[in-house]
Amino acid sequence: MIRAGLVLVLALMSMRTSAEVFTYIDAQGNRVYTDQPRANAKRVPIATSNRMAVPANTAAPVSTAKKSAEPAPFHYDMLRILIPEPDATLRSSAGELIVSVTSEPGLQSGHRYRLLLDGKATGEPGVSPVFALSNIDRGSHSLSIEILDAAGRTVERTANQPFHMLRISLAQKRQVKPCVADDYGVRPECPLKDKPAEPKNPFLRFF
Questions:
Q1: Average of per-residue pLDDT values in the chain
Q2: Within a 10 A sphere around the Cβ of 13, how many other Cβ atoms?
Q3: Cα–Cα distance between 180 and 177 in angstroms, integer?
Q4: Of 52, 65, 76, 188, which is the most buried if we count CB atoms within 10 A?
Q5: What are the distances in angstroms from CA 170 to CA 78, 119, 149, 150, 179?
Q6: What is the pLDDT of residues 134-147, one digit of tens each?
């Protein structure tokens, strides 16, 4: 009977702390526990639960949303070299060349053009689509244009585009336009050292 009473006590203690428990001695002399009040029953104090509420600042962290994926690199629909045309033959005694490029859409904010001659950068990246080159060796070469973003990463790049540079030598220029007396010391192909001596007046020897 005592064991049954203990089981009842444990069961009652497992109830919500807001429920009341009472005890009394029945006619047979047994102690009885119940949640129903009686005239001869006494209220049994029940200890509160030993579970601690988790403080707000120590609550399990809510998994933060994953960082949004980095935006895909900007893509240009078109990037090409306008001038010179592919496989063009150019003639310049000083090896000079003007390169013009274009893109669609236009160059985006933070992006820069960089021109490559035979795979090597011709200068610092910039926003201008026009490049002036000089003293290019005679022979065949290749051009390529690329677009860099603000971090210096390549966004777009064209394939190598060939061209051929013909540089007229000074001797060839003299053949095309022979030097006259007033050209020496003025035209690069007509240096003063090559100026022929002026003929002497034969009559001066008699004076």
A1: 79
A2: 15
A3: 9
A4: 76
A5: 41, 30, 44, 45, 11
A6: 999 999 999 999 99
Domain count, the chain: 2
With CA atoms as reference, report the closest residue to 23 among 52, 45, 4.
45
Over the stretch 89-102, which tens digit does the pLDDT of each residue have?
998 888 999 999 99
**Would the pLDDT of 81 be above 90?**
yes
Question: Which amino acid is located at 63 in the chain?
Answer: S
Tokens 């002497």 found at:
200
- Determine contact, residues 146/119, Cβ cutoff 8 Å: no
Exposure string of 83-106, with b = 16+ CB inside 10 Å and e = fewer, is ebeeeeebebeeeebebebebeee
Say whether both 142 and 99 belong to one domain.
Answer: yes
Which residue matches tokens 């009885």?
32
Residue 137's identity, in one-letter code, is D
Q: Residue 202 has what DSSP assignment?
A: G
**CA-derived radius of gyration, the chain:** 50
- CATH code (residue 119): 2.60.40.10
pLDDT, residue 52, reads 47
| Domain carrying residue 11 | 2-45
Contact 97, 136 (CB under 8 A): yes
Are the CB atoms for 58 and 40 separated by under 8 Å? no
Torsion of CA 112, 117, 119, 122, to 10 degrees: -50
- Strand duo 161-166 + 88-91: pairing: parallel
